[in-house]
Design goal:
alpha/beta; about 375 residues; single chain; three-stranded antiparallel β-sheet; binds 4'-deoxy-4'-aminopyridoxal-5'-phosphate; Aspartate Aminotransferase, domain 1; about 40% helix
Amino acid sequence: MTTLEDLPIRDDLRGRTPYGAPQLDVPVQLNVNENAFDVPEDVVAAIEKNLHAVLAGLNRYPDREFTVLREKLADYLSGVLTRQGGTSSLRAVEPEWLWAANGSNEVLSHIVQAFGGPGRTALGFVPSYSMHPLITTSTGAAWVSVDRNADFGLDARSAVAAIEEHRPDIVFLTTPNNPTGTGMPLEVIEAVLAATAGIVVVDEAYAEFARDGYVSALTLLPDNPRLVVSRTMSKAFAFAGVRLGYAVAHPALIDALRLVRLPYHLSDLTQAAACAALDHAEVLLGNVDRLVAQRDRMSATLADLGFSVVPSDSNFLMFGGIRDPHALWQSLLDAGVLVRDIGIAGHLRVNAGTEEETTAFLEAVTAIVRRDP
Ligand code: PMP
């Protein structure tokens, strides 16, 4: 039997393992930071209508510039920025500042293809999203991991010191961070922008779940042509199955992404579904507060049980003080609850679910702790 080892694969891919969060058929799935709520019926109906309208035209390639989707994303973000208030001269986002692709993973891969590649370096502060190094190295660029502080935070001084030491071409900042959950102050991003001549990617996949006081890096865009803010419809919009991520940056930076994207990368079906969802943004985002309430409930209960809980601006929590994380992960799975063992000593990560799912998790974890304190 031929194995991968027998094929003339690139040397730098030999021995690597693919991204692989377990996809198990378990009653309560709280492991990949999805939105727990189904797409509401009226939004399903609107998506069906939009899909129907494009079906007969599927003999043609889709709009390469996803013009309508871009306008709708710009409208959504203009609302976000207006709500952030007074911190920026950018009062609205123009469609030329928008990019979109099949999930923010693909957006990130476009950014690294354009600004990374062989001979270049990207740097990130870990623990963080495990795909950043995988996306980087798949373009032939080198990856540098710099440890976050002991409390998983990142301060401007250490971030700048790391950049001065490694002089990366791309810096990844994830805020709110995955898997730790916490957002980062805007001063850190500003300090990083000032310290590097490279591209700064701010991955804001979870920004809609942030606590009051969180200010988006979107507010920094007008003065920073090397900044790109990446976001997604997979989390707050409950749209992970569609695969729609987007980025905002100076139009010149967006032009660079056009050089590396495959022609017609966003199908008509994807564009039509995403447009329908954006037309119903308020309904879809209506569940954000419910998830935040469940997150805060989990946080309080886990703290009462004696775990340390990392402050979260996301739809998930990282909790610590676990003697054997893999054993707890397995016991929860045995109880029908799938959480994530993120490979950080003493810690696990769990999504906020619906109220019922969250209750199932909390009851299971309480029973396990009582049984085996
Ligand atoms: N960024 C971060 C920080 C994430 O956690 C994820 C998904 N877990 C992504 C990007 C990618 O999400 P998607 O491709 O679904 O937009």
